């Protein structure tokens, strides 16, 4: 009986020791849990100038409430030049990408020469218009305006997580380097922007936050319904031929850069005549009245537009009526160019290049690569 009692005590003691050891190990494991990836900080050096830290969390949905929300605002007002429509588009696309990287809410304020909202509206995913509640909340936030026109480096090197950076950043930029942003910050961007070429980055980004309004699309639809559509031309899939011919410096734009020589324009007409149906319709966007008159004279009823004046809005602020009319025509012309069966564009023009990026179908796109006094060099382009 004594032996049984000793044996029972031995078993009980051993069991108690095992329980104590197991409990100690369990607590130690809990204290040494490895933090998840979302809790860690990733170090990135996109420009090789200095290190910056960015939280590697997924981009918050725009309608999700944020604590101490910060903003990145594309600004275009009358206080300083913004550039043409192509410059402004590059600026907006670049800041949208940076807003994803730095987890700031993206907004747009364009008041020069006139408000953009009658012509473009936000998508459901990204509302770039300040709400009344947001505007009210701005009063308590720190603000700063920065300008990076024709100088991308300071913007790309800006650490927006720095505690000294304002909560609301208003930025004027025509940043050329949006593809560099996508390349350097790949791991912080959504899948649709990863490992893409420049055309895809622009197209996917622009369509994520911009939608043309009914006021704009109705004008384009009206142009597209103009003229007689030939059946044979329609069957060829190349019924509507569009071209953007940027002449640049001229009596109409004395301070602009030099584009295609007027004497080389007939070479574009020859290209159209030799490669496309003889009864296809013709649309030509240009900044020179002589080009328009030449197209109308040559193609007669086949010519369906444009009839607008394309001028740099920054240079016309003294005449807001004309400036706003010119800006509206730029919106209409570019959207129209993107809807054509065939597009001939001038690669040195951002306005023209972006029209090719936004083309409904990436086919039958021809770039004017260069020119002589009397001819142009055209190359079929593939994205």
UniProtKB/TrEMBL annotation:
Name the UniProt record assigns to this protein: Peptide-O-fucosyltransferase
Key word Transmembrane helix present: yes
Species: Lottia gigantea
TM annotation in the entry: 7-26
Keywords linked to the UniProt accession: Membrane, Transmembrane, Transmembrane helix
Domain of life: Eukaryota
């Amino acid at each position: 009986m004594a032996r049984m009692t000793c044996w029972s005590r031995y078993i009980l003691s051993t069991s108690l020791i095992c329980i104590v050891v197991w409990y100690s190990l369990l607590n130690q494991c809990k204290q040494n849990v490895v933090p998840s990836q979302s809790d860690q900080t990733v170090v990135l050096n996109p420009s090789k100038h200095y290190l910056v830290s960015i939280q590697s969390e997924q981009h918050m949905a725009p309608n999700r409430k944020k604590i101490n929300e910060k903003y990145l605002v594309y600004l275009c007002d009358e206080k300083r030049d913004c550039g043409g429509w192509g410059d402004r588009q590059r600026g907006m696309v670049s800041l949208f990408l940076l807003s994803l990287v730095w987890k700031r809410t993206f907004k747009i304020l364009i008041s020069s020469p006139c408000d953009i909202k009658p012509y473009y509206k936000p998508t459901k995913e990204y509302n770039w218009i300040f709400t009344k509640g947001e505007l009210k909340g701005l009063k308590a936030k720190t603000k700063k305006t920065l300008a990076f026109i024709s100088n991308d480096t300071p913007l790309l090197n800006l650490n927006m997580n720095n505690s000294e950076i304002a909560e609301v950043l208003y930025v004027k930029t025509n940043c050329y380097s949006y593809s560099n942003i996508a390349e350097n910050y790949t791991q912080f961007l959504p899948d649709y922007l990863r490992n893409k070429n420049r055309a895809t980055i622009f197209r996917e980004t622009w369509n994520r936050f911009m939608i043309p309004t009914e006021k704009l699309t109705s004008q384009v639809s009206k142009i597209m319904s103009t003229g007689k559509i030939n059946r044979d031309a329609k069957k060829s899939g190349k019924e509507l031929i569009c071209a953007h011919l940027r002449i640049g410096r001229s009596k109409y734009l004395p301070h602009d850069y030099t584009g295609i020589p007027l004497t080389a324009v007939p070479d574009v007409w020859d290209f159209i005549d030799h490669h496309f149906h003889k009864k296809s319709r013709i649309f030509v966007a240009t900044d020179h009245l002589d080009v328009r008159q030449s197209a109308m004279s040559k193609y007669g009823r086949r010519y369906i537009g444009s009839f607008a004046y394309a001028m740099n809005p920054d240079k016309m602020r003294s005449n807001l009526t004309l400036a706003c009319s010119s800006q509206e025509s730029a919106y209409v012309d570019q959207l129209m160019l993107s809807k054509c069966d065939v597009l001939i564009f001038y690669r040195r023009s951002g306005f023209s290049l972006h029209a090719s990026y936004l083309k409904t179908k990436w086919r039958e796109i021809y770039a004017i690569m260069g020119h002589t006094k009397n001819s142009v060099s055209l190359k079929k382009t593939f994205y």
